[in-house]
Write a structure and sequence with these properties.
With about 210 residues, the protein is an alpha/beta fold. Helices cover about 40% and strands about 15% of the residues.
Length: about 210
């Protein structure tokens, strides 16, 4: 006899496995972080990196609507008070560390745009960084297709590009997710590939140098 709820459980499991299969089928890039502390700061000061950052902390008590409207912040989960402070603190750390920032691209969701504007005082909305809903095999492919060109694009000389997006988007191409406010730093090689050189939690930016 079929146990109650077993069909729903099986469907959910198959959905997770499907997304995992998509991730495992995507191009494999170096995923071992190599730099931290002073060497990381010195590398970033030279430019040439793409910094993918998940939006900062949000108010989890007010989730996205079933069908959020990108242009209507009231239908979305937004930054918490702590998240707004966190974004400003990250931006101040970049200034203190003298890390040059060029292009700043953001998901059009309000929590991502607000993070970018609070941290870097500017943001250009990019559909390639939008969060995909629902999150399944199809949307994982869409997220990967939107993000890959941005991670492989070379920044302006002497600058670092910043991408503000969502955890699912990076997971679709890398196989790992980020905490809110955490960054994954990549070095594009100019040939369509990129290497992960560091992961930096939100609170660690201000402590990268003693």
């Amino acid at each position: 006899m079929k146990q109650p709820g077993s069909s729903r459980w099986l469907c959910a499991l198959l959905g997770v496995l499907s997304i995992g299969a998509v991730v495992s089928a995507l191009p494999v890039f170096a995923q071992t972080a190599q730099l931290e502390g002073k060497p990381l700061v010195e590398a970033l000061r030279q430019g040439g990196h793409v910094i993918f950052m998940r939006h900062s902390a949000t108010d989890m008590s007010k989730p996205d609507a079933d069908k959020p409207v990108v242009a209507d912040c009231a239908t979305q989960r937004n930054l918490s008070r702590e998240g707004r402070i966190e974004a400003r603190t990250i931006g101040q750390a970049f200034d203190n560390l003298q890390i040059p920032v060029g292009q700043v691209l953001s998901s059009p969701y309000c929590r991502a745009l607000d993070t970018a504007r609070l941290a870097f005082a500017r943001a250009e909305s990019s559909d390639g960084l939008i969060e995909q809903k629902p999150q399944n095999e199809t949307t994982a492919k869409v997220a990967e297709a939107g993000l890959r060109p941005l991670l492989t694009a070379l920044p302006a000389p002497g600058k670092n590009s910043v991408l503000i997006s969502h955890g699912f988007n990076l997971r679709a191409i890398s196989g790992f997710g980020l905490a809110e406010g955490e960054a994954a730093i990549y070095k594009p090689d100019g040939k369509g590939g990129f290497t992960l050189v560091a992961r930096v939690p939100a609170a660690k930016w201000s402590t990268l140098l003693p």
